[in-house]
Amino acid sequence: MVDYLWLIVLVPLLSAAILLFFGKRIGDNLAGPMASAAVLFSFVYAALASADFITGAAEHGEVVMVWSWIPGLGLDAAYLWDPLSAMITAVVTGVGLLIHIFAMGYMAGDPRIPRFFGYLNLFIASMLILELAANFGVMFVGWELVGLSSYLLISFWFEKPSAAAAGKKAFIVNRIGDFGFMIALMLIFANFGTLDFEHVFEVAPVVLSASAATTIALMLFVGATGKSAQIPLYVWLLDAMEGPTPVSALIHAATMVTAGVFMIARAAPLFELSELAMGVVATVGAITALFAGTAAIAQRDIKRVLAYSTVSQLGFMVLAVGLGAYVAGMFHILTHAFFKALLFLGAGSVIHAMAGEQDMNKMGGLRRVMPVTFWTMTVASLALAGIVPFSGFWSKDEILAAAFVHGDYAMALWVIGLIAALFTAFYITRLMMMTFFGSPRWDESTHPHESPTVMTAPLIVLAVGAFATGFVNLPWSPWLEHFLESAFEGVEHAELPATYLGLATLASIASLLAMVGIFYAYRRYHRDELPDESQGVWKTLLNGYYVDELYGRTIVMPGKAASQALADFDANAVDGAVDGVGGSVKRLAEKAKPLQSGLVRSYGVWILGGAVAVVLIILVRGAL
């Protein structure tokens, strides 16, 4: 089956093309099922192709060439099928399928349903290209396609100025990160003469100097900060919620934001050559986790809380891969995909019930009228908060344990991670209390109700995953670690505490802090009247530390001013010079126009004068 694995990309890609070009003929009723069926095919095919990895019949991956793409560069359109790509494919197609099903209910009545599902299919296919790539060239194609897909989906409701602006913001910020990624690819090709993973990773320790390895790794990380929303390029993800909620779930849980973390894990042999680069990756991840976690505690928009939460959780993943805990990072991608998709879709269910309202100050008491949404989101919230035995507990604590054991500077990162975990428990409990508890605060004209089965069924399935996926990599039964072992063969792994007692002690510390966060949020928000959070530090946190305003004043406005100056120079100097030449020619033509009078006698005089002039020239030259 591996030889025809390209079908898992081709089928959703074809579905996207059909929906985008023939969507009106297909109709709204068939668009959703068609798109979902395409993703279901990819999920089932990938699961069957992964059977040998799951059973242990095959340990190592294989590269399969589809066609010779750019022979002069030794670049093939080829894919790499190994346990790492198998795991991430299962996440993308499995969670993506549930989001597609949910979207059929959420998007009902939208005037452009076929186009929406076409874009969703394109997003899935783009992510599959990225994660199955056998070389940096194919990865870059998928890398850019997920950027395009996110732009199309974030700005899907382009009639709203905020949605159109959010799409442009996502596109531009990611182009900044992509510039670093392109520089890295140029340096890789300059040093190796190829972009093939196998060759580059094999000879990198011999070919690359310390400075070259550091430069390449840091440039790759610049790309990762864009896609995986790390400081300083995280700002686009906060506005990505302007798109339909299923889009938010897909971006935040299963596709684009995991691309950067996946790329670092795939390029681990390059990052391992630079201790400096690894330190930078881990440090940026930890700081991002804390920074976004603190900002999340003051947000009022239910989706914006979750957006900051995603940035924070991605920080944990980046911290993991920066410490060399690659399996822990991939483990958190797996668990996070389920509980974050569930939280976003649950938020979508709430917004659907509240007739589009997203302000949690205008909610409250919804647990009575939306029991399925409430209980499934409770499972996801406990997983995000890191409460045992929910999935997030196992993956998050494995990352923190790796930071503790690493020692040196990582001890400080461990402390930062613990504080971020405390804020995580607080903000997600705050969200649940403000949304589902207390007295109703909605308008009398609003009549909230539970969402239809097509929306609640995916919530239930995701809730099972948010609870159970943590058991795939228990300390005493690390199945996922064994599963991914061959994907990170030859790469130095971060160590975990040698004893269960050590792990239990570290987990107890993190769990105690999480319980403190939950208890304080419960005490603060378990009341009918919400506390005033409009001034002081709350206002600063609500505005995300005013980073957008800072970027606007220091980068955007000067950039606009420079662009306007260049535009004025072009209009006045460049165009002025061109217009001046044209004007001079025009004036000369006006002066010379009498020569073309149309009178034969006038032309005869000029001919006679010309002939006399020629004769005189000949005579003068002959005399000389």
Count of individual beta strands: 2
Radius of gyration: 30 Å
Low-confidence stretches: none
Which word captures the global form?
A: globular
Helix content: over 70%
**In what range is the share of β-strand residues?**
under 5%
Q: How many separate domains?
A: 2
Return the structural class: mainly alpha
Amino-to-carboxy terminus distance: 93 Å
Biggest β-sheet description: 2 strands, antiparallel
Mind sketching the topology for me?
Blueprint: H1 7-26, H2 28-49, H3 51-55, E1 62-70, E2 75-81, H4 83-106, H5 113-132, H6 136-154, H7 161-192, H8 197-207, H9 210-227, H10 235-239, H11 245-254, H12 256-266, H13 268-271, H14 275-296, H15 302-322, H16 326-353, H17 371-385, H18 391-406, H19 410-436, H20 453-468, H21 479-483, H22 500-525, H23 536-542, H24 547-592, H25 600-623
Antiparallel strand pairs: 1-2
Helix pairs in contact: 1-2, 1-5, 2-4, 2-5, 4-5, 4-11, 4-16, 4-20, 5-6, 6-7, 7-9, 9-12, 9-14, 11-16, 12-15, 12-16, 14-15, 14-19, 15-16, 15-18, 15-19, 16-17, 16-18, 16-20, 17-19, 17-20, 18-19, 18-22, 19-22
